[in-house]
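Supplementary Methods. Inverse-folding protocol.

Structures were first reduced to a discrete structure-token string of length 1458. This string, shown here, constituted the complete conditioning input.
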């Protein structure tokens, strides 16, 4: 190939004409040497040809040798020849190799000459000085330009002979060159500069940037590649910091990378602060229009993200500084968009940083340091940043959704919405949306209730704002309908709301688009699903269909489904909604349970205002008609109800609050005994229809006046005489079924009436006036009586009933009780026997029971060995009771308004009991791990679950009345005027009278007809003194649960705490006259006032205590309430004076707990040991200790309060361990001897020793944890500079904890046969040692520098070692005795003990102490040496026994074969 054609034509022009050059080079030494070496073509006309470049180089090196004169002549010839640009261009181009089997190197002649050491420096200097001349006549920005070829020949040389001279030449030539050549020189410099010249080169480059600002970025890149730049680069970093804000946007990525990469300890903080303050001022990108391609500014932003990622990867110091500075920000206004970018860039720097960043972000959102506006600033309008950080942003959204707290989950929801809608470049929008939906799909399949609900909230938000975009991904939306079984009831509402929104969505596009086709296909799938679910026989499937139907009705009848919807389309959709509801209502005759669910779901929709006015009007008419079908004329006679089988059930009118003016009644008994099966089954939805009708009445008219008659209407119930003990036992199974079911239906009916009037009548209306207020209080009395009667009847039945009254999803617990679940297997096994027994009954009776299957009682055999029924079996039917709404609690605040306060005690006790049940369930669910809250468990009591905050909202209105109520009930307890009846039920005592509640201003005076009379159980349910005891019990338990809740201690709930303190704090008993609820917003307190209010509340509860005369359970609850208030006060910042008051309050709690444990220890004689245990309410602490039997929980609580709140807990434990606990008999006793008390604690005996031991172990574990946390804080410097006083204090705590630990384990040596204590010793002992292990790194570091101070530590650790020896012995004995309880703990305990030995050895070696280690003698707990190995004779006997057993099994197998 013609080589001339390869060379650009411009190289042949100019002064270096080929002929002139050739005539002038006849005596050139360079040309002669090349020709002699076999190199041809250096004439400017063609490429240079050489047979083998290696041979040429060796020939030239041989000819040059060390002859300096010849070298000088050779260099002169080179300069003469290369003056011609044509010759130079040939020398710079790759040589042609003509030899065979010679590898192609691509080297030029210039590069070959530069690799010869003798002529390298002169040739390089000549070529560099020619750069200004070479650039003048050609395009220097081209890759094949002569300047670029010259600089390229100088790169990657085998050896640089004189780098200093070449560096000086480059610096000298660079100012004379154009910018492309200057950039090439800057790229070459790092390869030539030696370490000694770095500082001078950096100074020269910095000086050059002052004249040529455009060279700042190339100079920075060159400096970054220098080998040593600590001294000079600090100057460069300072220069970049000064010029950063005035730099061009295009230079920003390089500047960011340099600053982060070269940040040091002196300027790292300044660099990060500059980035945070200056970056928001750069307008890197703007929000593009839909479909617009990525702009140049977005490319710069994406490059800036990558530059910062590279800089942080290269500098751990910069990454740490970024994290620490952003972590210190607490004000939302201080956070800027780059903060989020930098944190997300840290995510890719390793697993530890990933975890730390996500933890920090969750904390910031939880504590309110940032909000969703920070996400908007960091995402909206920053297309390039989102593209570079999209995986990190998607991961952050997932982490926030999984956080579990409301604030992070809300932020995650917002971030998902941003990523789906407006924050993706046009080219990657579809792919990014798919990734967002895939991430949401992962959340939906996680099984975590909060995570699933949050993901559905994201879809719901996207549906309302970007339904068209979601329809493009209809396959994903269809997948939601395929996994409905995994959703809870609340999540089903979200799912169907999403799908219904998409199905009803009306696109503005004309024609049939792909989105429209997807919408129609999704609508057909939804229609088929709802039809299938509604036709199912399973209640859960029916509920799914009902929820979907109601959501579709809500969306169809919405006033304005879409902005473009026409009135005709709205009317059509409204008609479709009515048709759907009509078809659902028609199913009531065949599926009454499903209709009950439908009514409850419709009630919730009406309450939330989701149904349009036409739908509400249609529903109101239909629901009122259904309710009227249940009511009868009150004037009708009530003869005995005839049942099949020639049986009858006498009935009567109960609880007529309307008096003679009443016109309607609820004939429960008549409907239950009706021969019409459909009529009987209609009772399954009685309460649900009542709830729906009342709710619609209020939302239509604004009041319940039109249905006020049903609040006081009487009920047709079985005669009260049928519920006497003898009468119940004489009834037939069918009659017992009627009695129980009628009571249950009456209870649910009254509960729904109370819910309706309490929920829809505001407190400002005085609960609807005096008449309504009185009726509500009387209904609460009726409810107390009915539940007492039901419990009484159930206790008399010889079987465990299972009531089939289906009350829909609003029941208190839809799932079966544990006893019912456990009884399923037994029922299956006994089905044959049960069938034989039923066959002996008349056929008519069997048919009747079958007809009443939906509302009757199934009787099962009582367990064998139970001759007497349990005292109460009401909890067995709790799952069939309708729950009371939290608004009903407002009735408790009306107790003070009654003219007869003693009549309102029973309603108050009933309400507080309901509050306690709901509060315990809510707090339990709040503390339960998320993975335990499955869909099935949440749907088990759907509608009954209340959050602590919701319950607090109901309790807020009654707090002003609660202190006076507790004070009144406490004073009534002083003189107990009640006795115990034959059936264990409290009876009305002397001087007491059961009256109906009466409110001044009511037109009707209280009469006996308002209550249930003629039965001692019903009368005793309203007895004032027992009711006062129940008020104290449940009221104090509620207060204990509330004050112990962790959420009440959080700063965001401080206003709720102030409401409580306003009620129980200063003048708690004198400020209740106004009956006004303190508003949450009006209860703001200063820290000092809040602490004082806590102390005053403690004083109030302390005044309620009766000491030895009060019930033990009540005294413990009072102490717990005081302790919880002190714990809350300690979380509030306060002054030193208030801290002293808190210490005194703690001491008083500790003394009170100790006195409670000593109750009766000295006053009771010894012969009283044979007396029976005291009844509840009497002093349990008798001299014999029998009163403490069954009070293990109270003992543990009192021991904890005594020790934990004492000034010196470890000293208190030592005194107790070395005193009273050491006097407990070592040998386990049985019978009464096991309950003989140890003075001065009647509750301490051989049977309760393990309770005391466990309580002390738990408290000691807390002390060790506190000590370990303090030492770790010292080690990490969290408490400031380390002081000797802090070390001495830590040593003293270690000494006290060690002594208590040793004394606690020594107790095991005295009780050799108490395996339970040994297991507790291993369980708690290993945890204690783990806490001790956490402190050893600090002691090792401290004694490395202070070896002379190790003596106190050595003494303290010896006490700990005396306890570890006992742990070793317990482990050995447990394995030797093959005790499974202890053997399971041995491995973990020994592992911890071995770590402890190694750790202590390291500390002592750090203190330069000699350690003597050896094998311990194998001893038992008594101190006797025993063999550490199993005796050989025992091994032989065990082997013989195994052989004998094997032979026996073989013989049995042989006999079976025969």
């Amino acid at each position: 190939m013609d080589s001339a054609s390869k060379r650009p034509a411009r190289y042949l022009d100019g002064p270096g004409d080929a002929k002139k050059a050739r005539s002038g080079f006849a005596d050139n030494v360079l040309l002669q040497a090349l020709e002699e070496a076999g190199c041809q073509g250096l004439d400017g006309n063609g490429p240079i040809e050489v047979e083998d470049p290696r041979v040429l180089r060796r020939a030239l090196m041989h000819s040059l040798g060390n002859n300096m004169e010849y070298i000088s002549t050779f260099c002169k010839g080179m300069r003469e020849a290369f003056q011609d640009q044509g010759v130079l261009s040939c020398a710079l181009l790759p040589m042609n190799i003509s030899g065979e089997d010679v590898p192609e190197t691509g080297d030029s002649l210039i590069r070959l000459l530069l690799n010869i050491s003798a002529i390298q420096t002169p040739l390089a200097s000549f070529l560099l000085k020619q750069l200004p001349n070479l650039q003048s006549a050609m395009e220097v920005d081209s890759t094949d330009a002569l300047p670029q070829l010259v600089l390229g020949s100088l790169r990657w040389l085998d050896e640089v002979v004189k780098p200093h001279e070449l560096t000086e030449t480059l610096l000298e030539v660079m100012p004379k060159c154009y910018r492309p050549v200057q950039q090439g020189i800057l790229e070459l410099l790092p390869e030539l500069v030696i370490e000694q010249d770095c500082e001078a080169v950096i100074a020269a480059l910095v000086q050059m940037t002052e004249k040529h600002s455009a060279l700042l970025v190339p100079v920075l890149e060159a400096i970054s590649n220098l080998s040593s730049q600590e001294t000079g680069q600090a100057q460069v970093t300072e220069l970049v910091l000064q010029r950063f804000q005035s730099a061009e946007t295009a230079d920003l990525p390089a500047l960011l990378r340099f600053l982060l990469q070269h940040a040091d300890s002196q300027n790292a903080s300044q660099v990060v602060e500059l980035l945070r303050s200056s970056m928001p001022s750069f307008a890197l990108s703007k929000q593009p229009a839909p479909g617009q391609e990525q702009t140049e500014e977005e490319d710069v932003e994406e490059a800036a993200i990558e530059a910062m990622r590279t800089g942080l990867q290269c500098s751990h110091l910069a990454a740490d500084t970024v994290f620490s500075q952003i972590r210190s920000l607490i004000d939302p206004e201080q956070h800027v968009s780059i903060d989020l970018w930098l944190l997300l860039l840290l995510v890719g720097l390793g697993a530890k940083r990933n975890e730390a960043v996500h933890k920090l972000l969750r904390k910031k959102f939880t504590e309110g340091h940032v909000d969703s506006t920070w996400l908007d600033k960091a995402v909206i309008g920053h297309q390039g940043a989102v593209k570079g950080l999209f995986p990190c942003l998607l991961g952050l959204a997932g982490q926030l959704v999984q956080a579990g707290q409301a604030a992070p989950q809300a932020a995650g929801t917002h971030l998902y919405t941003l990523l789906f809608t407006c924050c993706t470049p046009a080219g990657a929008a579809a792919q990014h949306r798919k990734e967002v939906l895939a991430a949401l799909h992962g959340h939906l399949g996680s099984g975590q209730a909060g995570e699933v609900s949050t993901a559905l909230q994201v879809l719901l938000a996207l549906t309302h704002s970007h339904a068209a975009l979601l329809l493009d991904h209809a396959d994903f939306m269809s997948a939601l309908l395929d996994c409905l079984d995994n959703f809870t009831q609340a999540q089903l509402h979200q799912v169907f709301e999403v799908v219904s929104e998409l199905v009803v969505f009306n696109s503005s596009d004309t024609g049939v688009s792909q989105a429209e086709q997807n919408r129609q296909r999704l609508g057909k799938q939804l229609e088929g699903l709802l039809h299938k679910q509604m036709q199912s026989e399973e209640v859960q499937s029916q509920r799914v269909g009902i929820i979907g139907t109601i959501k579709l009705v809500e969306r169809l009848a919405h006033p304005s489904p879409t902005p473009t919807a026409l009135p005709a389309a709205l009317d059509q959709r409204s008609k479709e909604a009515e048709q759907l509801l009509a078809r659902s209502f028609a199913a009531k005759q065949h599926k009454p349970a499903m209709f009950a669910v439908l009514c409850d779901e419709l009630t919730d929709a009406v309450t939330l205002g989701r149904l349009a006015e036409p739908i509400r009007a249609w529903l109101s008419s239909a629901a009122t008609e259904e309710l009227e079908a249940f009511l009868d004329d009150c004037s009708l006679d009530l003869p005995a109800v005839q049942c099949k089988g020639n049986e009858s059930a006498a009935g009567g009118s109960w609880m007529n609050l309307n008096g003679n003016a009443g016109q309607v009644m609820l004939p429960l008994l008549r409907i239950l005994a009706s021969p019409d099966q459909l009529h009987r089954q209609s009772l399954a939805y009685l309460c649900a229809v009542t709830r729906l009708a009342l709710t619609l009445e209020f939302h239509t008219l604004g009041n319940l006046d039109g249905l006020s008659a049903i609040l006081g209407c009487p009920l047709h119930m079985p005669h009260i005489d049928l519920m006497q003990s003898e009468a119940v036992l004489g009834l037939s199974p069918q009659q017992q079924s009627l009695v129980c079911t009628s009571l249950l239906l009456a209870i649910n009916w009254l509960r729904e009436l109370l819910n309706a009037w309490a929920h829809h009548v505001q407190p400002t209306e005085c609960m609807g006036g005096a008449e309504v207020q009185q009726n509500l209080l009387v209904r609460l009395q009726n409810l107390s009586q009915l539940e007492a009667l039901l419990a009484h009847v159930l206790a008399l039945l010889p079987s465990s009933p299972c009531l089939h009254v289906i009350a829909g999803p609003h029941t208190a617990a839809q799932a079966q009780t544990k006893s019912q679940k456990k009884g399923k297997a037994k029922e299956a096994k006994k089905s044959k026997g049960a069938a034989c027994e039923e066959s002996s009954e008349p056929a008519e009776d069997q048919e009747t029971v079958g007809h009443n299957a939906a509302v009757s009682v199934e009787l099962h055999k009582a367990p064998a060995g139970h001759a007497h029924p349990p005292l109460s079996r009401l909890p067995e039917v709790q799952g069939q009771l309708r729950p009371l709404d939290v608004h009903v609690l407002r009735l408790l605040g009306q107790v003070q308004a009654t003219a007869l306060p003693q009549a309102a005690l029973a309603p108050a006790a009933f309400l507080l009991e309901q509050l306690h049940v709901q509060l315990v369930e809510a707090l339990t669910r709040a503390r339960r791990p998320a993975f335990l809250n499955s869909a099935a468990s949440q749907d088990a009591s759907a509608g009954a679950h209340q959050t602590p905050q919701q319950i607090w909202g109901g309790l807020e209105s009654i707090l002003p009345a609660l202190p006076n109520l507790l004070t009144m009930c406490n004073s009534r307890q002083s003189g107990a005027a009640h006795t115990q009846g034959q059936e264990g039920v409290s009876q009305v005592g002397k001087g007491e009278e059961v009256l109906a509640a009466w409110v001044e201003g009511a037109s009707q005076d209280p009469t006996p007809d308002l209550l249930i009379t003629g039965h001692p159980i019903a009368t005793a349910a309203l007895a004032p003194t027992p009711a006062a005891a129940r008020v104290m019990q449940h009221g104090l338990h509620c207060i204990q649960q509330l004050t112990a809740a962790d959420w009440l201690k959080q700063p965001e709930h401080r206003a709720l705490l102030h409401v409580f303190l306003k009620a129980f704090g200063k003048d708690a008993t004198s400020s209740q006259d106004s009956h006004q609820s303190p508003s949450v917003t009006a209860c703001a307190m200063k820290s000092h006032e809040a602490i004082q209010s806590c102390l005053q509340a403690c004083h109030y509860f302390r005044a309620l205590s009766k000491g030895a005369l009060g019930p033990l359970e009540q005294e413990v609850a009072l102490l717990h309430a005081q302790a919880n208030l002190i714990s809350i006060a300690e979380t509030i910042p306060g002054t030193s004076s208030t801290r002293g008051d808190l210490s005194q309050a703690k001491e008083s709690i500790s003394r009170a707990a100790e006195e409670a444990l000593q109750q009766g220890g000295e006053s009771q004689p010894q012969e009283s040991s044979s007396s029976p245990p005291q009844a509840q309410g009497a002093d349990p602490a008798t001299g014999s200790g029998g009163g403490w039997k069954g009070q293990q929980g109270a003992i543990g609580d009192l021991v904890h309060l005594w020790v934990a709140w004492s000034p010196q807990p470890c000293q208190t434990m030592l005194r107790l361990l070395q005193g009273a606990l050491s006097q407990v008999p070592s040998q386990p006793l049985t019978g009464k001897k096991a309950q003989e008390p140890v003075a001065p604690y009647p509750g301490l005996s051989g049977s309760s020793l393990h309770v005391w031991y466990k309580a002390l172990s738990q408290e000691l574990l807390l002390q060790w944890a506190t000590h370990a946390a303090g030492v770790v804080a010292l080690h990490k410097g969290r408490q400031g500079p380390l002081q000797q006083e802090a070390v001495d204090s830590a040593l003293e705590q270690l000494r006290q904890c060690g002594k208590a630990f040793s004394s606690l384990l020594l107790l095991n040596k005295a009780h050799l046969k108490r395996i339970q204590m040994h297991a507790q010793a291993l369980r708690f002992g290993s945890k204690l040692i783990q806490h001790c292990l956490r402190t050893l790194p600090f002691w090792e570091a401290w004694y490395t520098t202070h070896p002379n101070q190790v003596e106190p530590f050595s003494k303290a650790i010896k006490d700990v070692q005396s306890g570890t020896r006992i742990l070793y012995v317990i482990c050995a004995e447990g394995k030797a005795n093959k005790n499974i309880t202890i053997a399971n703990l041995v491995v973990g305990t020994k592992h911890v003990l071995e770590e402890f030995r190694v750790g202590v050895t390291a500390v002592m070696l750090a203190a330069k102490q000699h350690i003597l280690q050896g094998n311990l003698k194998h001893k038992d707990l008594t101190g006797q040496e025993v063999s550490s190995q199993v005796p050989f004779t025992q091994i032989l006997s065990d082997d013989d026994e195994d052989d004998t057993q094997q032979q026996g099994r073989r013989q049995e197998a042989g006999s079976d074969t025969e």
